[in-house]
UniProtKB/TrEMBL annotation:
It holds the Pfam family Cellulose_synt. This is Cellulose synthase-like protein G2. The active site is at D144, D454. It comes from Cinchona calisaya. Mn(2+) binds at K274, D298.
Amino acid sequence: MENSLPLHLSRVQKSSLIINSFYFILHGTALLALIYYRAYSLMETTKNKDISISFKLCYILVFASELILSFLWLLDQSYQWRPVFRTVFPERLPKDDDKLPSIDVFICTADPNKEPSVEVMNTVVSAMALDYPPNKLHIYLSDDGGSSVTLKALQEAWRFGRFWVPFCRKYGIKTRCPEAYFSRKDDSDGNLGSLSSEFCADREKFEKQYEEFKERVQWIREKTSTFTSKNHPASIEIIKDVDHDDRTETNESEIPMVVYVSREKRPSHPHHFKAGALNVLLRVSSMLSNSPYILVLDCDMYCNDPSSARQAMCFHLDSSKLAFVQFPQKFHNISDKDIYDSQLRFIFTTRWWGVDGLKGPMVSGTGFYITREALYDTSDIQNDVDVSELRNKFGPSNEFVKSLHQKNIISVLSNEEFSNTLQKEIQFLASCKYENKTQWGKEASFRYFSVVEDYFTGMSLHSKGWTSVYCDPPKPAFLGSATTNFSELLVQQTRWCTGLVQVAMSKYSPLIYCPPRMSILQSMYYAEFAYFPFYCLPVWCLAIVPQLCLLHGIPLYPGISNPYFILFAFIFLSSNLKHIQEVLSVGHSIRTWIYEYRMWMIKSVTCYTYGTLDAIMEKIGMKEASFLPTNKVADEEQLKRYQSGIFDFQVSTMFLAPICTLVILNIACLLLGAVKIFRNANIDEMFIQACLSFFILIIQYPVVEGMILRKDKARVPQSATLLSALLAGILLSLGSLILIY
Ligand SMILES: O=c1ccn([C@@H]2O[C@H](COP(=O)(O)OP(=O)(O)O[C@H]3O[C@H](CO)[C@@H](O)[C@H](O)[C@H]3O)[C@@H](O)[C@H]2O)c(=O)[nH]1
Ligand SMILES: [Mn+2]
């Protein structure tokens, strides 16, 4: 290193640490007391022959729910253990660009109908414009749709980038995603004062060029079929100038190499979704640039801060066991009223800060700089290692095996160099048979085992002793499009849950697999993540059982006059106050707490439930794994509703029925139960149950409104309300039958 000053610093967030420890002790003790109370009462109840079996059953169900909640709470505490903040000093990196290692950027796209080409190309262009030596940056776009629209749009993007990148460099533009840059209200970015008139002229020129670029991409989309196929050979192309027209204006060496990769797909071969695509990129890039570091981006996640590569290098150049630097997923389209909790605040603030103080966060899908070495798991490769062993692991390509020993081959290839033999080798590496009988997706590379390839890959790396860091600078390094369509969001999160439960129910189940391989706290956080879909069990139970009992005047909780009442009240308050404290501490308002709480309940009875069922069906062979990419095309009306905080219930009945049923059931039980309470004058012992129902209804008020009060197009469809009423009726009658018996 040129100077001895540190490249990065970390410091423990002391205030959070104190609050968290205090909370852990208080809340933990309260939970122990609750378990003692429940266990003791249960024993007393079982001894008592006069108490009905149905009451005992309800009591056991509620106790079991509380045990599950307490267990998940305990796992969740791993996130609170050692929250850290980090600062990076990219300006202290070697001044000599030759000393920087090279980086390959992998961008994945799958379907031009769901992933608008202009948006994807903005991501590509923003990556081309990263503040990094252009000869050390190589951009690979994986097109899983094998669509000629994407290839042609990429050629346009490259042509536009050839002018855009030097423009950004010249004026030190900070927002290098053209769409984001030109839609900014103020034009100070890049305006360096004295140059301002030249700058304004240039800016105008490039704005026009950008508009033309968009028009051309639009034109391509209109003229070319956006058909995506699952049956096509591999096609790899280094993007270059075809018509040589304005070649003189920019020197090609000023911009990074851009490569289009569409791997071979055949219906008879599993293609393993995004992880499969990334592994093909790993192999293809090993022939062309073989950079030791890789930045992975989803197609809708553009580079918002060009210095992210240098920031990541501050960590990578300083540690040998570091597998990846993860940046948060932040989004450019979050409304103040983020009713669907699309921003995933709870993951990318407090939780990831917390695990950063352990051995680092898990891979979070996109926005991370990872080392090739960690992905290949080849830190021990010596030149004399058995080649046949390497071929067993990495497949039959000798060229690929050779690349394992070569760090950093290649500068940019000229057209002639992209010779026939190399072409053939690359085609072979991108073919679907290549991985047969190898360790791709298993021991090496992005792992296939689960559709949440990110979670599982991260877990595998950490269990091999690799570490990671979380870099969360004030200026977001990457900005993506959050899923703000309620329907898409539910489908997306169901897929995540399926993937997580796949892991939870396998031999890789974190509490079994992780403890021998990593610290107990780290195992706990992997476990909490994989097991959180199981929240569906207590949520279903606590939204039905106490309510049915309320209706029948059966108390399940201590009455107000019972000293244990305070315990229950304390647990309720302390968990919510902690949640509120977390929300406020990151600058959000109480509203965020309500949004998150509401979505947690809704997702528990839909996404978590269906995801768990899906994973079970896959396990017993009744279903195949699938990964439908989320639709990133915004629907104007739907977007307007999201922005004004109005729920859009144009969602399949399958997703509406569970929450509507529960809401109707709670309304019925609360109203009828209240009548009963007045008649029997037993408010004391029914108080908690009545409060629980009331609380659920307050939190789920938009659902009540959507069913009863709203008249617009996006209300809960009447058919769904009727079906839910019917289901609630069935639940009520069944419950009554059991309870009366
Ligand atoms: O067969 C596929 C499916 C998806 N993708 C790409 O994978 C990315 C993520 O897909 P998306 O539909 O946006 O899914 P999300 O649920 O939004 O993705 C989140 O969750 C995934 C794991 O389920 C992670 O891989 C992502 O990084 C993370 O943003 C996109 O760029 C897709 O083009 C492929 O390349 N091939
Ligand atoms: Mn996405």
